[in-house]
Amino acid sequence: MGGDTARVSVVVSAEYDEPVETRELRYFVAVAEELHFGRAAQRLAMTQPPLSRAIQQLERRLGVVLLHRTARAVALTEAGSVLLREARLALDAVEAAERRTRRAAGDRPGVVLAVKAGASRELLSELLHAYAAEPGAVAVEVMLCGPGEPESLLRTGRADVALLHRPYDTTAGFDTEDLHTEQQVVVLPKGHPLADRAYLSSAEVNAQTDLPLPRWPGRDGGHPDGPGPQVRDHTQLFQLIALGLACAVVPESLRDQLRDDHAIVPVPDAPAVTTVIAWPPHSRSKAVADLVRTATRL
């Protein structure tokens, strides 16, 4: 990111109008995510005393307590939770502005499209083929990534446009167009006692204990607590299911990635999954506009 002199205004109270520095936001996010000043200081490649002073100065400036500190633990206050959410968005916006500015100054025009590996394969293929036939089409760099990553790549400016999937991805803050809506199914190992059912409810999927649901990485890259296996992508997930170590509720379109040792059962009450094409609301890129127009036409 840019130097520490860059500033972003974060409005917390009308009584405090002095802008907060991006440096302070980075410091606070590190402490809020680690909930430990020593680990946060190590992550930031600095010593702990100046980090503690910076957080105290931030609290004085905002006039709020952001962290509860004891000899054994650090915890976020309600105000701290709000600032963590807003600070992440602000830092993402600054990072995105820097990346898109550098890309706009490059010699090779193009557009970067982020999509989960294995997801929306048919749609993606049709989109790239149709867009390439458009007059004035530019090169499209496709970034295939793990679950949750396309949204992050779009927010931080590493991608210009992304295919996202509600409700798994958050589209708040983006402009979007809905492309396709589908139902979900549960993937089981072939021969499982539930594999012959005409359908299963979400409660039945969650209640069966022999096959836990997987744990996907969160925004910070860590996995939530739980009994299920940690997974990074669908290839890994489907292999674990075939081995009888997990089950998963997934969009129906992923059935073409399954093998003979899998079984699928519809889950009618699971939330429908909508594939959307998303882009930053301030984008003025003609290539992005043309790509979105092609996608909606499909």
TrEMBL record:
| Region (Disordered), start-end ranges | 210-232
Protein name, per record: LysR family transcriptional regulator
Q: Which UniProt keywords are present, listed alphabetically?
A: DNA-binding, Transcription, Transcription regulation
Domain of life, per UniProt, equals Bacteria
Q: Which organism is it from?
A: Planobispora takensis
InterPro entries, A to Z: LysR_HTH_N, LysR_subst-bd, WH-like_DNA-bd_sf, WH_DNA-bd_sf
Residue ranges of domain HTH lysR-type in the record: 20-77
What gene does the UniProt entry assign to this protein?
Answer: hcaR
* SUPFAM superfamilies listed in its UniProt record: Periplasmic binding protein-like II, Winged helix' DNA-binding domain
